[in-house]
UniProtKB/TrEMBL annotation:
<comment type="subunit">
    <text>Oligomer forming an icosahedral capsid.</text>
</comment>
<dbReference type="GO" id="GO:0009349">
    <property type="term" value="C:riboflavin synthase complex"/>
</dbReference>
<dbReference type="InterPro" id="IPR034964">
    <property type="entry name" value="LS"/>
</dbReference>
<comment type="similarity">
    <text>Belongs to the DMRL synthase family.</text>
</comment>
<dbReference type="Pfam" id="PF00885">
    <property type="entry name" value="DMRL_synthase"/>
</dbReference>
<dbReference type="GO" id="GO:0000906">
    <property type="term" value="F:6,7-dimethyl-8-ribityllumazine synthase activity"/>
</dbReference>
<keyword id="KW-0686">Riboflavin biosynthesis</keyword>
<comment type="pathway">
    <text>Cofactor biosynthesis; riboflavin biosynthesis; riboflavin from 2-hydroxy-3-oxobutyl phosphate and 5-amino-6-(D-ribitylamino)uracil: step 1/2.</text>
</comment>
<comment type="function">
    <text>Catalyzes the formation of 6,7-dimethyl-8-ribityllumazine by condensation of 5-amino-6-(D-ribitylamino)uracil with 3,4-dihydroxy-2-butanone 4-phosphate. This is the penultimate step in the biosynthesis of riboflavin.</text>
</comment>
<dbReference type="InterPro" id="IPR036467">
    <property type="entry name" value="LS/RS_sf"/>
</dbReference>
<keyword id="KW-0808">Transferase</keyword>
<dbReference type="GO" id="GO:0009231">
    <property type="term" value="P:riboflavin biosynthetic process"/>
</dbReference>
<protein>
    <recommendedName>
        <fullName>6,7-dimethyl-8-ribityllumazine synthase</fullName>
        <ecNumber>2.5.1.78</ecNumber>
    </recommendedName>
</protein>
<dbReference type="InterPro" id="IPR002180">
    <property type="entry name" value="LS/RS"/>
</dbReference>
């Protein structure tokens, strides 16, 4: 959201007018009256080069007015950050299926909570059979009003059939519905990978640990 403060006169020089110029017969001097709709009225005298000087003055004032208007714009950036986690409680819902992947993800999440000084007694871990069941349990935990955020951790790896698409889509929609229905943030930490190598890389390998990122999202 951007809020703007209004200015009384925006670029008044575009609506400025120059009064008729009075030349002396010798042509050596002239008077230029500059009338603007702003509060200030300017007048000055110059030599025969008054036209160039007047143009420079107008350009300078116009640039100043533009700069002044630009500085009145105030854009607010809202970002989450946590410096104290005392009193915050979290739940972690973890799928047992593909435990070789989900266990390192859980360990990464717990390590991040520890780095942010979240006491172990303020973290509850709930194991479910697979990623398909994560949403149901997450919603139940959210409605208990005992937790400030719920982490949803699982791993779905593509196989030879379309079963992958059904489980992955159901897991995503289930976590989304859990957050909407319970009013508690449910963080999506379910990996959806084409093969086991991709999953291992995201469970502490060269692509980092997505479980740790999920915990960081929760405390933010």
């Amino acid at each position: 959201m951007a809020s703007f403060a209004s200015t009384e006169c925006f670029l008044p020089l575009r609506q400025s007018c120059l009064t008729p110029m009075h030349h002396h017969q010798n042509g050596t001097s002239a008077i230029l009256h500059l009338n603007c709709k702003s509060k200030n009225s300017l007048s000055f005298s110059s030599s025969s080069s008054f036209s160039t000087q007047g143009t420079n003055l107008c350009n300078a004032i116009e640039r100043k007015e533009r700069s002044s208007f630009a500085q009145t714009a105030a854009v607010r950036h809202l970002m989450g950050s946590v410096t104290r986690t005392q009193g915050l409680r979290f739940a972690v819902v973890v799928a047992r299926f593909n435990e070789i992947i989900t266990k390192p993800l859980l360990e990464g999440a717990l390590a991040t909570f520890k780095n942010y000084s979240v006491p172990e007694e303020d973290i509850d871990v709930v194991w479910v059979p697979g990623s398909f069941e994560i949403g149901v349990v997450a919603e139940r935990l959210g409605k208990s009003q005992k937790y400030h955020a719920i982490l949803c951790i699982g791993a779905v790896i593509r196989g030879d059939t379309s079963h992958y698409d059904a489980v992955a889509n159901s897991a995503a929609s289930g976590v989304l519905s859990a957050g909407l229905n319970s009013g508690v943030p449910c963080i999506f930490g379910v990996l959806t990978c084409d093969d086991m190598e991709q999953a291992l890389n995201r469970a502490g390998g060269k692509s980092g640990n997505k479980g740790s990122e999920t915990a960081l999202t929760a405390v933010s």
